[in-house]
Amino acid sequence: ANFLVRFFSSYWIRQTTTRVKNMDDAEKAKQLIKDDILPETKKNSGFMGMEILTCDMEHSVIVQTKWATLDDLKASTAGTEYYKAAVKKTEPYLHLPQVRYYEATEM
């Protein structure tokens, strides 16, 4: 599900929440994201940072990437073959990705 939430703001956030089977898998997935997905994502125009969080209660991994503009977010590696291949590596640990887009305010 994709949601665009508009605030008065200076950057856009893509948030992907993915359920995991257990928290050991969450840690493995976090490491793969840092090693494989983050270096490639950094190459994109407008990239402003990535945060990888885990939620024990819901057994989920939450990845937030921050972008200067909505166009930068849309043009990011999410659609590329590289990104798809990197995400495939995390699939043993993850299921049910949900992607939301937020335009967020710098406080």
**Radius of gyration of CA atoms, rounded to a whole number:** 13 Å
Ends distance = 27 Å
Main beta sheet strand tally, sense and closure? 5 strands, mixed
Helical fraction: 25-40%
CATH topology: the name is: Alpha-Beta Plaits
* Beta-strand content bin: 35-45%
State the shape.
globular
Total of domains: 1
Q: Give start-end ranges of low-pLDDT stretches.
A: none
Strand order of the largest sheet: 1-5-2-4-3
Structural class per helix/strand content? alpha+beta
Q: Under the CATH scheme, which architecture would be assigned? A: 2-Layer Sandwich
Number of strands: 5
Number of helices: 3
Mean pLDDT: 77
Give the SSE string: EEHEEHHE
CATH top-level class = Alpha Beta
What does the model show?
This protein is of the alpha+beta class. The protein has a single domain (4-104), classed as Alpha-Beta Plaits (2-Layer Sandwich). The chain has three helices and five strands, in the order ββαββααβ. It has helices at 23-41, 70-75, 81-90; strands at 4-5, 11-20, 47-55, 60-67, 94-104. A five-stranded mixed sheet has the order 1-5-2-4-3. α1 (23-41) packs antiparallel against α3 (81-90). The protein starts with a strand and ends with a strand. The mean pLDDT is 77.
